[in-house]
Amino acid sequence: QVRLVESGGGLVQPGGSLRLSCVASGFIFRNYPMNWYRQAPGKEREFVAGISVGGRTTNYADSVKGRFTISRDNAKNTLFLQMNSLKPEDTAVYYCSGPTWGQGTQVTVSS
Length: 111
Hints:
Order of helices and strands: EEEEEEEEEE
Structural class: mainly beta
Shape: globular
Largest sheet: 6 strands, mixed
Radius of gyration: 13 Å
Oligomer: single chain
Distance between the termini: 40 Å
Number of helices: 0
Helix content: under 10%
Number of strands: 10
Strand order of the largest sheet: 2-10-9-4-5-6
């Protein structure tokens, strides 16, 4: 069964950091480019960051450039998103995406 399971979300103050993880199973993880998306209340799901199969190439939405870092550990079938300098507008459900979608993890940035 192809599956993606996110974790690491939570409540954080503005300026804080969180690290999201996404564990993959049921497919050959190292063969797939992977992405993070997010969906805020009342808004459409939007692209956040993407990474190539080997991890050498990454790309980011303008809104998170310089603050978020996507990475992967192919030996552990895991995708990461390091989020620094978080802002209230980063509040959303964050989804891992590859050959399928994860269930999402809530990130709330509030004082």
